[in-house]
UniProtKB/TrEMBL annotation:
Keywords: Cell wall biogenesis/degradation, Glycosyltransferase, Golgi apparatus, Membrane, Signal-anchor, Transferase, Transmembrane, Transmembrane helix. Its main location: Golgi. Belongs to the glycosyltransferase 77 family. The keyword Transmembrane helix applies. Residues 125-323 form the Nucleotide-diphospho-sugar transferase domain. The keyword Membrane applies. The chain crosses the membrane at residues 32-49. GO terms for biological process: cell wall organization. It is a single-pass type II membrane protein. This is Glycosyltransferase.
């Protein structure tokens, strides 16, 4: 058996010899240590990368990545035809969703369409409105009163009746809407999405920010359109179609699984702080309630009001009651003109909300009355 010096001599002389046990073991451990270091560095870089794109820092990286792997539906030639007919020159469309409960005669659909007819400069926008219906009855009603209707596949869920706030059907309806809007963006169409309980009183395009990708109404507006502490309302948004908004909507939709049991607006209120938004370069702006008001926070100067929303209100009857009065208020205000002067007067004020003001309290009382052992006291 050769000693170490002999082995060294043979190696230096360039001769082949059988490797000894000791050098092989040392090389193996060196390889293992290098591999461990490489794996550690790789994992460290992966974590750093993930922290940059993952808005939920305590969740795995695969989750944030999955938000960009949304599976879009197959092309729908019927939708493409409806959208093409309704689109403005730049491809922008106005969208609302409708089910049977809101489509009944003298209900929200009629009030919604009426607002376009009596609004200041809004009637011409009706030709760009696509009504997306969630059931056959709503579709039949839509085609009877409006030229651009599309029936959305609701994937076996029945959305025809009134979906009460925060029930399972309500949540499904809200998230199906977000999913559909992703498809519209991927088609290349910018859009204004509006709830049907929003009255269009003046042209809202006059009040949109020119440099923003995603603009959303507010339940509570704090005076600065870039302040993330503003409380958003997903019932009214203006979204420009580009790769930034597509990524954002997919991320928004995927985030529903992180916050189960919450609707799109509450989830948006959480993810609006995500570092993903500035990372993809999307410019988000909140719309001033002085121009885009509602029952949560009302703009008092009617001459500045573009839209009014029956938000902070539950119950179809409550909304219909107060929106009828709201349109009367607007009509009275707007008709105070002289001659051909179409600039409205500023001497009127809103007389709403009325029934909506106490709708949540009455709704809770109604639920309590239905609990076992509770008897509702009625006067004779």
């Amino acid at each position: 058996m050769k000693n170490n010096s002999a082995v060294d001599g043979e190696e230096q002389a360039g001769k082949l010899s059988a490797p000894s046990v000791a050098p092989t073991t040392g090389a193996t451990w060196r390889t293992v240590r290098v591999s461990v270091v490489l794996v550690g560095v790789t994992l460290g870089l992966f974590v750093l990368y993930n922290s940059a794109i993952n808005p939920f820092k305590f969740l795995p990286a695969s989750y944030a990545y999955r938000a960009f792997r949304f599976s879009s539906p197959h092309k729908d030639p019927i939708l493409e035809k409806v959208v093409k007919e309704a689109a403005m020159e730049d491809g922008t469309i106005i969208l609302t969703t409708l089910n049977d409960a809101w489509a009944e005669p003298d209900s929200l659909l009629d009030l919604f369409l009426k607002s376009f007819h009596i609004g200041n400069g809004t009637q011409r926008l009706l030709k760009h409105l696509v009504i997306v219906t969630l059931d056959q009855k709503a579709y039949s009603r839509c085609v009877a009163v409006h030229p651009h209707c599309y029936q959305l596949d609701t994937q076996g869920t029945n959305f025809s009746s009134e979906a009460y706030f925060m029930t399972a059907d309500y949540l499904k309806m809200m998230w199906r809407r977000i999913e559909f809007l992703i498809y519209v963006l991927e088609m290349g169409h910018s859009f204004v999405f509006t709830d049907t309980d929003i009255m269009w009183l003046q042209d809202p395009f006059n009040h949109f920010y020119k440099d923003a990708d995603f603009q959303i109404a507010s339940d509570l507006y704090l005076g600065n359109p870039e302040n993330l502490n503003n409380v958003p309302n997903g019932g009214f948004v203006y979204v420009r179609a580009n790769h930034r908004t597509v990524k954002f909507y997919k991320f928004w939709y995927e985030s529903r699984t992180i916050y189960p049991g919450q609707h799109d607006q509450d989830v948006l209120n959480k993810i609006k702080h995500s570092p993903l938004i500035p990372k993809i370069g999307m410019k988000l702006r909140f719309l001033d309630t002085a121009n885009f008001g509602g029952f949560c926070q009302m703009g008092r100067d009617m001459s500045k009001m573009a839209t009014m929303h029956a938000n902070c209100c539950v119950g179809l009857e409550n909304k219909v009651h107060d929106l009828r009065i709201l349109l009367q208020d607007w009509n009275s205000f707007f008709n105070q003109t002289t001659g051909d002067n179409k600039s409205p007067s500023s001497t009127h004020s809103w007389t709403v909300p009325q029934d909506c003001k106490t709708s949540f309290q009455r709704g809770r009382q109604h639920k309590d009355d239905k609990k076992p052992g509770n008897r509702r006291l009625t006067s004779i």
